[in-house]
Amino acid sequence: MTKIVIIGAGSASFGLETLSALMYSARLRGSHLALVDRNPDALGLMARLAARLNREWDAQMRVTAHAGHDDALDGADFVVSAIEAPPREKLWQQDWEIPLKYGVRQPYAENGGPGGFAHAARNIGPVLEIAHAMGQACPDAWFINFSNPMVRICDAIHRYSKIKVVGLCHQIFTGYGMVGYALADRLGIEVPDGVISTHADPDLWPRLGRIVKQVVEKIDIQAAGLNHFTWMLDVRDRRTGEDLYPLFAERWARLDPGFEPLTRRVYAAFGCFPIPGDEHLCEYLPWVSDPVTRPWEKYEVSLYDWERNARRRREGHALIAQMADGAAPVDELRERDGEGTRDIVETIAAAGRHYHLAVNLPNIGQIGNLPAGAIVETPAVITGAGISPVAVGDMPTGVAELLRRELTVAQLAVDAAVQGDRQLALQCLLLDPVITDLDVAQQILDDYLDCYRDYLPQFWR
User: Fold this and answer.
1) Which of 297, 302, 291 is nearest to 440 (CA)?
2) In whole angstroms, what is the distance from residue 235 CA to residue 241 CA?
3) CA pair distance 318, 380, nearest whole angstrom
4) Are 8 and 81 in contact, with CB atoms under 8 Å apart?
5) What are the φ/ψ torsions at residue 267 (nearest 5 degrees)?
6) Whole-structure pTM over 0.90, yes or no?
7) For residue range 358-400, what is the model confidence (pLDDT) as tens digits?
8) How far, in Å, CA of 406 to CA of 455, rounded?
């Protein structure tokens, strides 16, 4: 019997996705699912829904609910986590607004920029509490991480615990969507009517998703780099093995110049196609935040809609309540894959074999010209023995330098957060491409640490 602990199980997105994917798995029938969430109402909703799925899908699972991780981890084989220090949207908005007081306009403020530091620092402490508890209760378990900033969270677990960690993210499918859009005629892809974009707008997601669903069966993309900062190294026709990169370059040049304009400029400059889409790519670049030239307007980089997404979260919980009570159907949940969780758990637990498009693991040589031990994103082969990253060689020189800088910023953020070291935190901000002034970096850091004093007590010892 496999034991899987889901931390953050009450989430209307991650929790629902992971729960339904695992409970519908025939290979995992009879496993133990331990649901963990500090929000008792959200946890109760998910436990009730699990009871319904267990009954209707004949999952034969043992499902337990826990208000904390300490009594859930014993004997676990996998721990799947997507925790966030709450309230997520309010804190994210503050991460963006505080630097604005000092003239720093971040493009997004989730994973890069000063906001990336604040976001990581709040989450690293709680994540390491889980990892250290795993060291006592289930030292051989895999920690499957979904929390952002992905590189920084995985780096903290890797360097400050003895737990095996892998980070999963679906962003590579944005690249499939863009390539499918450019090669639609060649591949026989039906493009939906309306605006096609990678932007973080729920009204746009279904259109890009329809392209992705068609194209993943027809092409294979090999991408590598860092999470939300990966680059397309190869693209092939699955049916013929043909190298489609030259044709893609030709067709991409013919598309409307207004389609992903930042991606377009970066591709033209570096000769390697970045696949996260404009609104994730923008966080790691030094050319999107100048307050004089206002490049975010030129590239149409929009902010995350915090209020709208907080409302969607509430609506999601309302729908879960209806499903738990039998007032809404659950058939659609059969299509969920847990964003890769099911593939990882099934394959390792049942000694299978699976090729995964993108995983975040410590660099043991899969990218030759990036630092050893740093968290990088590449494809991987998963078997009963674990997760083996695919070696992709060296990244192009200019791209590698962008990646190295971000890795340095990420590791400084982790060290600062773990040690409560203000000097390292300042260095993290000073090396971030968004920051251009020594005094401003200090002012932002001081404001962050004061505003988030309750979340970051280590800096006030």
Assistant:
1) 291
2) 9
3) 37
4) yes
5) -60, -45
6) yes
7) 999 999 999 999 999 999 999 999 999 999 999 999 999 999 9
8) 24
